[in-house]
Amino acid sequence: MIGYVTLGTNNIERAVKFYDELMSELGAGRFMETEQFVAWAVSPDKPGISVTKPFDGKAATVGNGVMIALAVDSPQKVDAVHKKAMELGGQDEGAPGPRGDSGFYAGYFRDLDGNKLSAFHMG
Which of the 8 DSSP states describes residue 89? Predict the structure, then answer.
């Protein structure tokens, strides 16, 4: 159902560097880019994530209650993605671990613009 998700940035070069490395942890690479917009996916026919300078020219802001959840194939991959985000200067929003007793395992973080993301695995 979801084709792609776009996150705003106020520093496209910095954001692209962060996401190039973070997305490589997921096996994703760039599949679209302009001066204002870069998108990553594991393949062009799968959902993607992108960063962009806002079209209206105003500053990018963070949505309260907005979060992008990245599905991965194991709890170890959750750990690796969260660790990579921290190494790249992201902010911890919840260390990786089980949440409840449903087999849900997740780690939460913010990117360099303050956008909230999580890596999760349903076991």
Answer: T
